[in-house]
Amino acid sequence: MAGVTGRGVATGDGAGHGRLFGALTILVVTALAVALVQGWGRGTSRAKAGQPASTATAAPVVLSGTDVAFIQLMIPMNDRALAFFSYLDSSAATTPALRELAGRLTSTHRAELAELRSLLAAGNVAEENIHEGHQMPGMITELRIADLEAAPAAEFGPRVVTVIREHLAQSAVVARSEQESGGSDRTRALAAGLERSRNEELVLLDAVPGADSAQE
Fold first, then answer.
1. pLDDT score for 203
2. Which of 55, 69, 116, 159 is deepest in the core (most CB within 10 A)?
3. Tell me, what's the pLDDT at 52?
4. Which domains does the chain have, with CATH numbers?
5. What does pTM read for this prediction?
6. Residue 205 CB contacts under 8 Å (≥ 6 apart), including other chains
7. Over 60: is that where the pLDDT of 69 sits?
8. Are 72 and 128 in contact (CB under 8 A)?
């Protein structure tokens, strides 16, 4: 797949392969960490006490280690992104264009979270944020938000664009690696939809006034 799909998501070249290899490495490491933390076999983990194990309509699904790693990474990535979009909505420094974009991203990220958690429940796997406190690529941490708040007013918009672009681009790469290495058809389909959404969202981001000045 040659070309560029949204700014910052290169495919078919050395940079794209490097990003994809990095995403695959993250998923492998996450899969190992999940196995150590939860002690689960393939698709056999039990949900935490007090946490719903499944929804009434969730069909059982067998999740591979890569599937679980993908889901357990995307849940905190989306959670942190939603917190960031909420911050942008409430910040007086946010431009109308960025506020509108944050609203659209909020809708898609919330829908994805519901699907991701439904898959975990269907696979009888407990949700674990094993990346808490880590500086993961594409993860919008409290530190990034603190940096924004401390930035000069003129730099706020470009920095916000950079943070959003990094999140969208990295999650698209992670979703692509799940499609190539995942075991569950349902999880791979979710990843395909997520990648499409991210590429569309990158196009929307590029349309925000001043976005070009925030290019890395």
1. 98
2. 69
3. 42
4. 14-41+59-214 (1.20.1260.10)
5. 0.75
6. 6, 7, 101, 161, 164, 165, 168, 211
7. yes
8. yes
Q: Are 34 and 65 in contact (CB under 8 A)?
A: yes
pLDDT in tens, 153-177: 999 999 999 999 999 999 999 999 9
Asked if residue 69 lies in contact with residue 31, where contact means CB atoms within 8 angstroms, the answer is yes
Residues in Cβ contact with 3 at an 8 Å cutoff, skipping those fewer than 6 apart: 11, 12
Please report, as a single letter, which amino acid is at residue 62: V
Q: Which residues are CB-contacts of 203 (< 8 A; sequence separation ≥ 6)? A: 6
Nearest to 27 by CA among 62, 61, 77: 77
Instruction: Give the type of residue at 133.
Output: G
Residues sharing a CB contact under 8 Å with residue 198, sequence separation 6 or more, in sequence order:
6, 9, 168, 169, 171, 172, 175
Per residue, what are the HEC states of 3-47?
Answer: EECCCCCEECCHHHHHHHHHHHHHHHHHHHHHHHHHCCCCCCCCC
